[in-house]
Amino acid sequence: MDKLRALEYFVAAAEAGSFAAAARQLGVSVPSIHKLITALESRLGARLFDRTVRGLTLTSSGETYLESCRPLLEEMAALDRAVSRAADSPSGILVVGAPPQLAHHFLLPALPRFHARCPDIQIDFRVVHRPGDIDAASVDVFLLHGWPEANDLVQRRLGQARMVIAATPGYWAKHGIPQHPGDLANHVCMLMRNPAGILIDLWEFERSQDKASIKVGGWLSSNDREVVLDAVMAGEGVARLSELTTRAQLLTGQLVPVLLDWEVVGGPPLNLLYRANHRRTPRVRMFLDFVAELLQEIEGDGSGGQAGPIERPQWHRRGYGRASSVLRWRG
Length: 331
What we know:
Blueprint: H1 3-16, H2 19-26, H3 30-44, E1 49-52, E2 55-58, H4 60-88, E3 92-98, H5 100-107, H6 111-117, E4 121-127, E5 141-145, E6 154-161, E7 163-167, H7 169-175, E8 189-192, E9 202-207, E10 210-215, E11 221-222, H8 225-233, E12 238-242, H9 247-252, E13 256-258, E14 263-265, E15 269-274, H10 282-300, E16 305-306, H11 314-318, H12 326-330
Parallel strand pairs: 3-4, 3-5, 8-11, 8-12
Antiparallel strand pairs: 1-2, 5-15, 6-15, 6-16, 7-12, 7-13, 9-10, 9-14
Helix pairs in contact: 1-2, 1-3, 1-4, 2-3
């Protein structure tokens, strides 16, 4: 016998005054009500109702039992409501992992808005470049550029980074503004090394049917985007940068993009990654939706992602130490 359901049927029948009225109220059949209440009486060894043609009348045992049942059922209902609210309300600790450039220039400036929206969520931020990093084991949600290899995670691509070729106004005044991608071979280009260790010394461009692949170089390279950006901001050279993470410098004119009639191709996609069983967790769901909404806002002002394929570049697929090594393979 389902004891809890029997108690619910008993209280409903006592309040309604008949099995038929209780059945209509609960959306069940009259025989179901009758069967469970009869089983309850049998279990208790006492009659709860006197049954007459005019309806039901509680016995003295029934009245005593009803007084005990009502608080119990109300307490159970209150507990159900509390658990449901806890399941639907975003709260608790959310561990977020992202590389420094996405953290400082995209995510962290917007986190106060997320906190205002979900004040009961505590953010534990970890600097992570790849899902395989040591600090990644406890991360709930990753925000990563590129083509991360993580078969055990759900990957949600938000778009492709729009890349720009930029330097300071002083650098361009001193060295001249390139009119064609090929002119970059004569400039000091600060190079990034990606998390896979590949030096990105091949900058590729498209314009209508035209394509250009330029091997570039300079005296500084780094796997830390901030090192490259600091050198460029000091007027030491040119860099290939994500527009998403250099919005402030571009908007203020500290950095000036060039070759705007060309598309800089090969920009990495922006990805949200999370464990499949975490998607229904309210704090994870709220954060995923917030980041997607944030990127849509930025794209609306023209400085977010770009449409088109998000294909992994040949140099990335082949794992060369230098991106420009693909030129030998093409030849």
